[in-house]
Specification:
Structural class: mainly beta
Strand content: over 45%
Number of strands: 11
Order of helices and strands: EEEEEEEEEEE
Oligomer: single chain
Distance between the termini: 40 Å
Largest sheet: 7 strands, mixed
Shape: globular
């Protein structure tokens, strides 16, 4: 069973930066498509960024383009989300997820229901 644990969240002022990490255990993530999602209170979970197993393709939602960057280190079994120029509207619980649907695939999914394994989430709070 693949287990994912996020870390790196916290409280930061607007304009600041955070780097989230997602450490996997139980099996290697090297062939899984990986994604970062977020969920704010009263809102649906939404994709932030996703990356293919081989690093070739990434997607970013418009609200984070140019500010966030997803990366992965398959040797360390870890995925990262570098978040810069943070805004109060970025406040949410951030989740890491692995997609079996995108196993060894060039496709990147935005839909949460295409992700098989989820972490417990890490809170990011951006103050104005």
């Amino acid at each position: 069973q693949l287990q994912l644990v996020e870390s790196g969240g916290g409280l930061v002022q607007a304009g600041g930066s955070l780097r989230l990490s997602c450490a996997a255990s139980g099996r290697t993530i090297s062939s899984y498509g990986m994604g970062w999602f977020r969920q704010a209170p009263g809102k649906e979970r939404e994709v932030v960024a996703a990356i293919t197993w081989n690093h070739i393709s990434t997607i970013y939602e418009d609200f984070v383009k140019g500010r966030f960057a997803i990366s992965r280190d398959n040797a360390k079994n870890t995925v990262y989300l570098q978040m810069n120029s943070l805004k109060p509207e970025d406040t949410a619980v951030y989740y890491c997820a692995a997609s079996a649907y995108a196993y060894s695939s060039g496709h990147v999914y935005r839909e949460p229901n295409r992700y098989t394994y989820w972490g417990q989430g890490t809170q990011v709070t951006v103050s104005s």
